[in-house]
């Protein structure tokens, strides 16, 4: 029989990193979230060759302090969480301390960073594949951080080939994700650029650092989009389902949450041909909520059979009411008592759409 032995540390790192950074979207998501966590008000995302050659995110956030250089890309080193107990009251996007270490394992990764008191000097940090700091160099730079990822998945050849084959589709998905971050981030000036072949540095989309998500939506999708939208402003209250009541030891406190955002009027001509512009957030964190999306689309179709709505919906709720720590890439969010929530959501949407004929479109507010 073969001997049971530990996998060598390097291989474990590779295996785990491939679960944190699963695709192009994960790269953009992790870097943009780090910029937002660093309090940035300007974020520029740059792609070369749709991200195959380079994905780079530059921000004007706090920068990284020199005493943290050694630890910044080490696995499970984070400035955002120190114990499991903190997880339920989390207000940052990151907390697992895995993104940068994973990028070191999967690509050529470096950072240029400066805190306010260092400018016009910045430091370029290069790392080993393990995430260990290889060297620091003084370079010129502004306040903030630029993280650069070159040749993503070059150390996972199968995934690299898959990505090359599907790059158009993958790039499209990244843009959709960045639309969501740009729209939800009021007060942050976002811009996205891409260089493909000789067409240099084309601005793909940008926002102006607006105060409202509505203005961000106008920047990203065009001002005309707003004419078909009505405000989404729901207060949901629902009794916990029987299993949840049992799990909480008979405590029958009702759940409350609000849903804020914008949605198409349920009138023919005001929806969209395909469900391509639907963004969901939990406490401003972009996430996929497939069951919730299904509920929205079902109710909308009962008013406008042949179209799908534009949806921008932020579920604002107690941080105890969900779990983001379900998968290493943090894209799956587990909502406690989703069934009861969805029933309540559907009923509220029906009311909203029934009243929508009297609702003034957002463009006229
Ligand atoms: P996490 O975000 O879960 O903490 P990361 O691997 O994404 O883990 O980042 C590790 C640490 O590096 C962060 O906790 C933060 O202190 C620092 N960091 C990463 N990106 C930035 C940035 N853009 N600006 C400032 N600090 C950053
Ligand atoms: Mg992070």
Automatic annotation (TrEMBL):
What protein family is recorded?
Belongs to the DNA mismatch repair MutL/HexB family.
Q: This protein is called what? A: DNA mismatch repair protein PMS1
Q: Identify the residues that the record assigns to the DNA mismatch repair protein S5 domain, covering every copy.
A: 217-354
Its taxonomic path starts at: Eukaryota, Fungi, Dikarya, Ascomycota, Pezizomycotina
């Amino acid at each position: 029989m073969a001997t049971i032995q530990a996998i060598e540390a390097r291989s474990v790192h590779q295996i785990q990193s491939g679960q944190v950074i699963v695709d192009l979207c994960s790269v953009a998501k992790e870097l943009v979230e780090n910029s937002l966590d660093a309090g940035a008000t300007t974020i520029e995302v740059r792609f070369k060759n749709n991200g195959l050659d380079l994905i780079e995110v530059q921000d004007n956030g706090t920068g990284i302090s020199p005493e943290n250089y050694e630890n910044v890309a080490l696995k499970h080193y984070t400035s955002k969480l120190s114990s499991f107990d903190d997880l339920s009251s989390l207000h940052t996007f990151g907390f697992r301390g895995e993104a940068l270490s994973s990028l070191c394992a999967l690509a050529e990764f470096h950072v240029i960073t400066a805190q306010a008191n260092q400018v016009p000097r910045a430091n370029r940090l290069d790392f080993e594949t393990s995430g260990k700091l290889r060297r620091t160099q003084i370079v010129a730079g502004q306040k903030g951080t630029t993280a650069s990822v070159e040749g993503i998945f070059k150390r996972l050849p199968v995934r690299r080939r898959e990505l090359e084959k599907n790059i158009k589709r993958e790039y499209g998905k990244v843009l959709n994700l960045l639309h969501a971050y740009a729209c939800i981030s009021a007060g942050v000036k976002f811009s996205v650029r891409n260089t493909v072949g000789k067409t240099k540095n084309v601005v793909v989309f940008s926002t102006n650092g607006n105060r409202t998500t509505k203005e961000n939506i106008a920047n990203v999708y065009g001002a005309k989009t707003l004419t078909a939208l009505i405000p989404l402003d729901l207060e949901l209250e629902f009794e916990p389902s029987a299993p949840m009541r049992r799990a909480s030891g008979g405590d029958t406190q009702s759940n409350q949450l609000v849903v804020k955002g914008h949605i198409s009027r349920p009138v023919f001509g005001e929806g969209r041909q395909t469900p391509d512009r639907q963004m969901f957030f939990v406490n401003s964190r972009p996430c996929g909520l497939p069951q919730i999306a299904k509920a929205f689309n079902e109710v909308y179709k009962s008013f406008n059979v042949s179209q799908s709505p534009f949806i921008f919906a932020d579920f604002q709720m107690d941080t105890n009411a969900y779990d983001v720590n379900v998968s290493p890439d943090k894209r799956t969010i587990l909502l406690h008592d989703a069934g009861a929530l969805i029933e309540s959501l559907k009923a509220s949407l029906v009311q909203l759409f029934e009243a929508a004929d009297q609702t003034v479109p957002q463009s006229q507010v």
